[in-house]
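Agenda item 2: calcium ion complex prediction
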Amino acid sequence: MTTADTASGAATLAIVLAAGEGTRMRSSLPKVMHRVAGRPMVGHVLDAVAAAGIDRVAVVVGPGMEALVRWVAPHPTPVQAERRGTAHAVLAARAEIAAGAGDLLVVFGDTPLVSPATIGRLLAERRRGAAVAVLGFRPADPSPYGRFVLGADGGLERIVEAKDATPEERAIGLCNAGLMAIEGARALDLLDRVGCDNAKGEFYLTDLVAVARGLGLACRFAEAPEAELMGVNTRLDLAQAEAAMQDRLRRRAMAEGATLVAPETVFLAADTRLGRDVVVYPHVVFGPGVTVGEGAEIRSFSHLEQATVGAGALVGPFARLRPGAELGEGAHVGNFVEIKAATLGAGAKANHLAYIGDASVGAGANIGAGTITCNYDGFGKYRTEIGAGAFIGSNTALVAPVSVGAGAIVGAGSVVTDPVPDDSIAIARARQSTRPGIAPAYRALRRARREGKA
Ligand code: UD1
Ligand code: CA
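Presented output:
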């Protein structure tokens, strides 16, 4: 963003339309709350609007969409009580529009891939003397979209919705992406002139173009690639938007210096941050909120969410980092190890088959195979504290709340219920009894019993 873009953005009011029921999704969740790269679609749209330098935003919601209202807070959320079309939805924000703005920017909450630069270009197009500027694109399959009808001078004359289009109009490849910039001072007047005489009986925002042209006002359009402008109406569209977003995120991660050995098998969240020289092996899934430090390796089939991985750490294969997992520099978390709400200090290791939850593990500690923090007793969660350099033998159950001091050693197979002080050795398991030479006699007795002789 240049400072000029940011300065012009200040005069803009963005209205995000999110009141639609999303009938075609067949979902009880509002459409714009469906996630792409771990983030609700409306979140991506709000990010793009903010990055374009626009800070006045209203999100038009439908009745009863409380989760959406909470998600977009503190932006105002005017309610469109009845879904009567996209122009009707914009007018739900009448009070915000009446407060005045240089530009009114309308963005659809179901168009999650739009970039800040494209929003900037649309606003620039409007400011070239047009009352209305609309964003167009040429999708591979134009069938669901409104079509741009151009005048002899190449300017935009009107937009015709697919359902209202003649066969000739349906042959037009240039489609409406839905984003529109409207001269702020004229916006309410133009919107109030839109009628509902069409196939769906709705107030179409797209009719604003014909309304403006009818008043002798100029309308323009900008174009951008389909990868940014596809609208999500169905679950299939959602999967395609996810694929497009993943492609973008993988490219960004690699551009920032991470190696993705097989990028098409790695799934990133919108906020995943991979440091320089991080290597991600095939088939790794990043949920939201993951940061990986420089030079760390994430090996195949690992799943990470709301976790921090320190520089040079090794994770996986087959590791699971759940919310609150924090690995220090050079820590190792190996196969079939689950970490939740726990910190591992620098160089600490849990290499095989372990569950570390609600715990802190000091630097350089070694957690043996099969170690379990028993953090939950069916009622409450309790903490386990393990000091620096401690050694926890294989198959140890740490019954929380419990602590193992720095430098302490716990014998394999222990069930630890009492604190283990620094530098002590604790063994908490049944003693072994051994009876030398007795095995042959035992076998003979069992055989005789089987054959009914004893
Ligand atoms: C709309 C455009 C179409 C364009 C396409 C681009 C209109 C009439 N049509 O069609 O030209 O090619 O987007 O993706 O504008 N919404 C409300 N209230 C309503 C109706 C819709 O808030 O009463 C919201 C929806 O939540 C959605 C957005 O407006 O975020 C677009 O609505 P949708 O029904 O998906 O429009 P399309 O049929 O896709
Ligand atoms: Ca749509």
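Discussion summary: The two ends are 92 Å apart (CA to CA).
Owner for follow-up: CH.
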